[in-house]
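Format notes (please read before filing issues)

Several people have asked whether sequences and structure tokens are stored in separate files. They are not. Every record keeps both together, in the order shown below: the sequence lines, then the token lines. Line labels are part of the format and must not be stripped during preprocessing.
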Amino acid sequence: MTTLTLEVQRKLGTAVERMPAFPQSVQKILDLTRDINCLPKDLVTVIEKDPVMTMKILKIINSAYYSLPAKITSVNQSVVYLGLNTIKNLALSIAAVGMLPRFNTSGFDIQRYLLHSLTTAAVARQVAVQYARGQLDPSDAYIAGLLHDFGKAVFAQFLAHDFHDALATSRERGIPLHQAELEVIGADHALVGSMLATKWQFPQHLIACIRDHHNLEAEPTALMDCVRVADQICRKLSFGEAGNAWREDEAIVAPQRFGSFEAVIEALGDLEKIVSDAQTFAQV
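Then the structure lines:
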């Protein structure tokens, strides 16, 4: 574990504090859906009290992203059609996307990063269903996949000069981005992402997954296995781009769970719909 200097601690703390909090409605949604006895009407009530969130959810549900046969006119209808977890993930995705900087001076491509995050989330959820059934909630895999690299957005927005140098170092020397970040910034995006997840009051297992997804010495979990392999799949297949190009010498994660990398990709089937859905979501 890297020991942070006081200066690095100060810079990271300031950057995290400058990130906005999740909308209160999204925080309540997350709190509600942690309870297995959560009722659909409770979720609907929370969402409908946030007119902006309601409008965005209905806009996406009625887009080509879902291609539903009939127009959905209420949040209650959307829960009936798509289920609690889908609506929770949709609300979280909308909130997370809304926090991304439109522009930054680091040279980090936010739109391609968004595509990488959305596809990693969807692949992680699918991997969880197929390879970790009964060991974790696929919805948690989606959330962790969506937010595993969110620390990069913090760096791009509030430590742009240092992050620009880290991106350049990674490219020029062919080393993993998180390693370049440690050299240039003194901490990596996984750590700052976990600090942000702590600020947002996420559960500890999600915080740990975000913090340790590059730490090969961390105790592996089903959640971390699924997020790591989903990230590798999306980077290898060039689903978006998050400043960390696929390297052919990378060790494949959790071979005891997944077997060969190629077998996992084949077992997941046609992933183009995941990419198409992510592109549609990002545009909406």
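For reference, the curators noted about this record: The radius of gyration is 18 Å. The chain has two domains: 6-20+106-271, 21-98.
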